[in-house]
Amino acid sequence: MNELEINDYLRRALQSADGQFSEVSGSRTEYLSEDNGSTFLTTRPLTPRTGKPLSAKSSAISPKPPTPTNPHEIALDLIKTRKATLLAGKACELMESNEYFEAFSKLNKAIQMKPHTEEFYIFRAECLLQFCDFNAAISNYEFALSLTDKDIAEEWKRRLGFIHLLYSQCMYDEHKYNEALSEVELALKIEPNNFSYQCRRLNYLFALKRHKECFAQVQCIFDSNEPTAEMYILRARLNRLVGSSSQCFFDMHKALDLDPSNEQAHNIVLEMNKSAEECKNSAVSYALNGYTTEAISKINVSIETNPQNAEYNLFRGTLYRQIGSYNEAIDDFMTTINKISHSEASKLYQDTIRQLVLTYNDFAVECYLKGYYEEGIALLDQAIKRERSEKGFYLNRGDCFKAIDHLNFALADYQQALELDPRDWVIISRISWTKTGQKLDKSWTRTGQN
Fold first, then answer.
1. What distance in Å separates the CA atoms of residue 41 and residue 239, rounded to the nearest whole number?
2. Which of 127, 169, 257, 325 has its CA 20 to 30 A from that of 120?
3. Residue range 100-112: mean pLDDT, rounded
4. Could you tell me the CA-to-CA distances from 220 to 38, 45, 200, 231, 235 in Å, in that order?
5. Given this model, what pLDDT does residue 65 score?
6. Per-residue pLDDT tens for 1-15?
7. 112, exposed or middle or buried, with CB in 10 Å at 0-12, 13-18, 19+?
8. What integer is the mean pLDDT of 257-272?
């Protein structure tokens, strides 16, 4: 068979195969019925095609044939290789000039002639991306990867991951969140530590309201990347969306520690501080009008939004003291002291200590009235430890000691109170009754609480 006969044979083979191209990757006419020119990329929204995808495997491609040894077979294979390469080269030129339909048709013919050339499938996949046929593009890339063990395969894998990401975004835009999640997870299988893919998966999980998995994904992001300000801002926004304002606050400040000039973090912190102050003002208004429970609810929001502001804890502690929730009040006062780092010279510290000792005293009086005298003594010990110049504390502790017949201790406390105020007739009466063994009137107790 001479060269002319070979060319004639090849021409007839291509003509007979024309009807099969649509089975492999669709016909040019099919696409032209939907679009009409090279302005496709800029005029059409990025929406995936519907219907049967154009798969690289949709036509049965036989296993790679053995290397020909017959001279005629070698000549035929050489001519087919040359023509397929010329078609692919022309297709690349057409793609550069945005003539994707013509390029697509030529690549189909090139693949029909040399079905085991992986580069042709890659070129066709890029063409299919211009038609937004993501399934077909993915199929072509996967088939090309199955044909090659070249070093460039890693680059093709990364490109395949990006196509999965692009397809997931299309699904997300159409509110198909489960499909979007499936696609981005395929991308993550290719590049598990890709920050963009991880963030996109987080976005889809949140759209599906799978918040527990959102936080697991955030932790995965922190485990696989060096923490940055943007990562802390990302987690802060997620915490804020699920109502965890305090965690949002701390993450924002960590972001600012890493990037003090981060405008986004500064704006969010300022917004949160403003919101916290507004809630605190509402709490004050409620408290002044006697709505203590509502005031506590509001100040709770302030503390959650700005947990570093010690004044909020002091204010809530005073509200708890008013309604007799002494344990909660003491906890808030101790928290306030810790937040200001025991700065004894500050007015806030002094105000907090005053409220704390008064709370110990009020709690002790309540214990006394209920018969829990030893508990009352322990509370007053704490009050006197922090405030030794308040006669009422000694007087009340003396009453507790007298109630359990520890008269010597009771007299010692009464004497200490008398030293602080020698003219107080109530103290003098207590001393007299203790010495004569008379019982106390409990209604006289609760001194020094204001």
1. 38
2. 169
3. 91
4. 43, 33, 13, 11, 12
5. 63
6. 344 443 444 444 344
7. buried
8. 92
- 46 vs 137: CA distance, rounded Å: 14
CA distances from 420 to 350, 393, 412 (A): 21, 11, 13
Quote the CA–CA distance of 230 and 232 in Å, as a whole number: 5
Dihedral sign (CA 286, 291, 295, 298): negative
How many angstroms separate the CA atoms of 115 and 137, rounded? 16
**Locate tokens 């969306």: which residue?**
241
pLDDT of residue 126: 92
pTM: 0.64
Q: Give the separation between CA 172 and CA 332, rounded to whole angstroms.
A: 46
Which pair of tokens denotes residue 54? 């154009």
Report the distance separating Cα 160 and Cα 248, nearest Å: 35
- CB half-sphere exposure, 114, CA atoms < 13 A: 23
Query: How many angstroms separate the CA atoms of 434 and 223, rounded?
Result: 69
